[in-house]
Amino acid sequence: xxxFKLLKIQNIFYFRYYTEQGLxxxxxxxxxxxxxxxxxxxxxxxxxQVESSIRTMLLNKENSLSLARKRFMQSATNTGPDVFFxxxxxxxxIDEEGKVYLMEANMSPNLSSAHFxxxxxxxxxxxxxxxxxxxxxxxFPNNRPGDEERDENIISRKExxxxxxxxKSSVCSGTKACNMTKCSACSQCLDTEKVAMxxxxxxxxxxxxxxxxxxxxxxxxxxLKEESLLNYDSSGLKENNRIxxxxxxxxxxxxxxxxx
Length: 260
Hints:
Layout: H1 12-20, H2 25-37, H3 42-60, H4 62-70, E1 88-94, E2 100-107, H5 119-133, H6 157-160, H7 164-167, H8 192-206, H9 221-224, H10 239-254
Antiparallel strand pairs: 1-2
Helix pairs in contact: 1-2
């Protein structure tokens, strides 16, 4: 979801797209920026930088976010359902050369539309998308990610399985195969923690609505280049993050919806 103060951009093209053509804020920005730069791919390059910046910041702050999350676990032993989520807003500036700079990150941002009434619809969508991806508003009442009693027909091992071509290969059939990142997401290597992680990822994927995934990165090689999903180097990441990247790479090869 994207936030723009339209009144700050005094350009006839922007208002024409948003007001007259009825486009959303992001699409209005894309049309205006591409027109201004005379380049149909200019806005795409901006968003690629935005995603990369947010991804880098979140990975760098992962330990702090994990510590904050533990305060919201439902049991003293931190083994209960994971019910923590955070809504954040990132503020960026763009220079004349199209380079993006992250200014600040706002935790639990103000969603009041008092200063600009058209933002009301945007904020309603932000809330809907947030609650959906967090599992608090879903197509399955009384089921949330992490519920131990969730019906297996909703998310079974079959939904989180990856390619047999990978998992039945000679490389992944050895006794030490599960120690290899390439094989770590295969069914023979799954423990309770991995199953829970993949089920949550599946749940977020099917309930993401208009949101886009920041990590693992999307498969957009023309824009993200080396950060594109299938080219992404996960070697410097924590173990669970490496495994999650591998899972999404395999799911992308099986189902293109996981690529983006």
